[in-house]
Design goal:
Helices cover 31% and strands 25% of the residues. The chain is built from 18 helices and 30 strands. The strands form 6 sheets. Strands 1, 8, 9, 10, 11, 13, 14, 15, 16 and 19 form a 10-stranded antiparallel beta sheet that branches. The two termini are 30 Å apart.
């Protein structure tokens, strides 16, 4: 690990279940907006300060709907054949978060008056955000303010907000102003995207409906309020204002000293994106708001918290001995839950629903890093992520056709399913995404035995994407007629347009073998469905035979002299470079070196061969894994947040425990400690899932061979113990690792068989366990 990757000083105080900001500094606002984000996979709110600021400050006010996007034409200096024509950007939607407070005419803001006491907390166990403070106005009036917010995981369209005010040293007028603001913009779009179609007030509901200019998607939102004074419902008449792009309600309250004013605010969004068939989304919004108000804030919050309890029951990792990493891993798992679509039509963006970095695009990160996290904890969410690729398969077919390939080619970055990346060297050329998608399908079926998904959806994806490999590669005489794949980019984006990228060839081989295997499997399982699908796809026996021949003859790079797997045909022949000599201010290289300089050296952006050794672990001996680690580790800058976790996992496997722990610390607290100084643009969701991998695949050694779980656990030196749960084939297993003992307990399921090191273990019946003493 290079000196510039050493762990940084903590920004937030350590707390196992909370992220706490105990002092507000306006210069940290942009970063904290990301850290204190909330979401439910459908709606995402940045941690914006609801009342705004008296002075202009750095930040990005943002509310988002997963999969709700606008398209804009991509402008090229020089267009070439099959370059994507349209980009896609997840939209910053109408703002419903604003809530202004006036104390006898003085507006409350954090940068006006004096904040006497302050604490903002992201409560990870409950999935809610609170802010408490005592504010002294410029004229000396003190008021206690408490705000609480959650986005429902029970009803994905709803959010709840509670404001509690207590005048401490005065009796006077308190004014509260709540609004919908439709005058919003995106940092990544040239033009304003949303046009207001309707707005107004209907039976105390503030509402607005807008439409995107190009994609023609519609979005509706509404707000409904309840106000209580001293715990009694207050029948207050609001004053309403309807402007061109805003709707506002305000209330003036005669507040007595030490009295309590409570405002419950219910927020609802709905859309009619291309996969939805909704006639009247505004009617849906109003209906949901009335129902929410009828239930009341407390009941909605309780339903949300029950969902969170179930999530943590399945997912939590308990670390005894390092509070910083305990906090880090829980923050990561919470943000993954908050950012991931659960409807089968949406996915998870590289920055989740926490910011506008990468324009809200979905990448291969989903299948390679994030889906495994859900697969072994919440398989229903993993299933939804697989289904997203099925529902976008037609777009993948179209993309393959544009590049003159048969079958289907999944886009490198997308929201709606179309390729949106203008930089083909690090996007279109990464053909391995087809194999990454198939790898996820293979692992999903392996862990769930879900034949319905595999036969009805998965096989079609596998076959259509396999067709591309057969066309993309060729049998090369000077390589002994081995099947070679040329001019591709592997996971390491610092080596673009190479021949025989090791990761790509191995993954393509796996993909082709699996396509052949599923041909036999489907024929046996459902002959009628098999014949129907083959007929619809016009798939012939000759094509399947070609897949088998290509897989059997795949060129798999290996260099006898070095005893390693070359990353590609030219990597080991490039000029070496001492990356320790690169000044920190020149990193990441992608922003500081021209590509021609990056490509010419033995310099890697991220794990490539090492990632392959994780995904296809059974194909590499420990000795080969060690040789590859020793060769590539000094050459890797880890400029990608996807890298450190993979190095940690492989380091654990080969016994490099110090490397493993240091890389894990960097992964687990990447966002909380802002390692890359860019968390203001959103979290790093793949790295967050990678932190889970460091523990489960790394420290506990989890692999799956021959359809069986295999563990090789060890305890990091600084820990007293750790535990986690794994869901596999409808059984839930809890694994507890301490200094002298490993305990496996079957929490759910009739029985389970797995391996502890080389010993087969069988546990029969729920709540039974097996212990191993070290």
């Amino acid at each position: 690990m290079r000196s510039f990757h050493k762990n940084k000083k903590a920004i937030y105080s350590y707390d196992e279940w909370n992220i706490i900001e105990d002092e507000f500094k306006i210069e940290n606002n942009y970063r904290n907006e990301t850290i204190f984000s909330l979401g439910n996979g459908y709606i995402g709110f940045r941690g914006n300060i609801e009342e705004g600021f008296a002075k202009k400050t750095e930040g990005c006010k943002g509310s988002y709907i997963n999969g709700f996007y606008e398209s804009e034409k991509i402008i090229y200096g020089e267009y070439q054949y099959a370059f994507p024509l349209w980009g896609q950007t997840m939209l910053n939607i109408m703002d419903t978060q604003s809530l202004e407070i006036y104390v006898d005419g003085e507006k409350f803001t954090m940068d006006n008056g004096v904040v006497l006491d302050y604490c903002r907390t992201l409560h990870m166990k409950e999935g809610k955000l609170t802010r408490y403070l005592i504010w002294k106005s410029p004229k000396g009036r003190n008021i206690e303010i408490y705000m609480e917010k959650f986005i429902s995981l029970h009803n994905s369209h709803l959010s709840g907000f509670r404001l509690k005010l207590t005048p401490l040293n005065f009796t006077g007028k308190v004014k509260i102003v709540s609004s919908i603001n439709g005058n919003v913009t995106n940092k990544n779009l040239r033009d304003k995207a949303l046009i207001t179609l309707d707005k107004g007030v209907d039976k105390n509901i503030l509402y607005m409906m807008q439409q995107t200019k190009t994609t023609k998607f519609q979005i509706a939102c509404g707000i409904l309020h309840e106000i209580f004074i001293n715990n009694k419902s207050a029948d207050l008449q609001a004053s309403y204002s309807i402007e061109e792009e805003s709707v506002t309600a305000s209330w003036e309250i005669d507040a007595e000293e030490n009295s309590t004013i409570l405002v419950d605010k219910f927020i609802c969004y709905d859309t009619n994106r291309k996969h939805e068939k909704k006639d009247n989304i505004l009617k849906n919004v109003k209906s949901d708001l009335y129902e929410a108000c009828k239930k009341g804030y407390n009941k909605l919050l309780n339903q949300h918290e029950r969902y969170m309890k179930n999530f943590w029951d399945n997912t939590d990792i308990i670390i005894n001995g390092d509070e910083a990493l305990q906090q880090g891993i829980r923050f990561n798992m919470l943000q993954l839950l908050q950012s991931t679509g659960r409807d089968g039509y949406t996915n998870i963006a590289a920055k989740g629903l926490t910011g506008e970095g990468y324009e809200g695009h979905y990448f291969w990160d989903t299948e390679t890093y994030i889906l495994p996290f859900f697969l072994y904890n919440n398989p229903d969410i993993a299933k939804a992520l697989v289904m997203y690729r099925y529902y976008t398969l037609d777009s993948a077919r179209q993309r393959a056709k544009e590049l003159d390939h048969p079958g289907a080619l999944y886009p490198w970055r997308t929201i709606g399913g179309e390729e949106t990346s203008a930089y083909f060297e690090a996007s279109t050329a990464q053909y391995h995404i087809n194999a990454d998608v198939v790898y996820a399908i293979k692992k999903y079926y392996e862990a769930t035995d879900d034949k319905e998904l595999l036969l009805n959806y998965g096989v079609e994806i596998v076959w259509e994407t396999a067709r591309l490999w057969a066309d993309r590669g060729g049998f090369i005489p000077l390589r002994g007629n081995k099947f070679c794949i040329h001019e591709v980019t592997g996971p390491d984006e610092y080596k673009a347009g190479v021949d025989n990228n090791c990761y790509t060839n191995y993954m393509a081989q796996m993909h082709l073998y699996y396509a052949v295997e599923l041909d036999d499997f489907m024929k046996k399982e459902d002959l009628e469905k098999y014949e129907s699908l083959r007929k619809r796809l016009e798939l012939k026996d000759e094509e399947v035979q070609l897949w088998r021949r290509a897989a059997e003859n795949m060129y798999l790079p290996y260099n006898e002299e070095l005893g390693i797997n070359p990353q590609d045909d030219t990597f080991i022949y490039k000029e070496p470079y001492d990356i320790e000599s690169i000044p920190v201010e020149r990193l990441p290289l992608v922003f500081n070196w021209h590509p021609l300089n990056i490509w010419r050296y033995q310099v890697c952006k991220q794990a490539d061969v090492l990632l392959l050794m994780l995904l296809q672990s059974e194909k590499f001996s420990i000795e080969l894994k060690k040789a590859n680690f020793d060769y590539y580790e000094p050459k890797t800058t880890h400029d990608s947040s996807l890298s450190a976790c993979v190095f940690s996992v492989i380091a654990s496997e080969i016994g490099y425990k110090e490397f493993a722990y240091n890389y894990f610390m960097q992964t687990a607290r990447m966002d909380l400690d802002d390692y890359n100084n860019n968390v203001n643009k959103g979290v790093h969701t793949a790295s967050m899932a990678g932190a889970w991998m460091c523990i489960v695949n790394g420290f506990s050694g989890l692999r799956i061979y021959d359809n069986k779980l295999h563990f090789k656990p060890y305890l990091p030196d600084k820990w007293k113990s750790y535990e986690f749960k794994i869901t596999f084939k409808n059984s839930k297993l809890r694994i507890q690792i301490s200094k002298d003992k490993v305990v496996y307990r079957l929490m759910k399921g009739k029985d389970i068989s797995f391996y502890h090191f080389d010993k087969e273990v069988v546990i029969l019946g729920e709540n039974n366990q097996q212990s191993f003493f070290e």
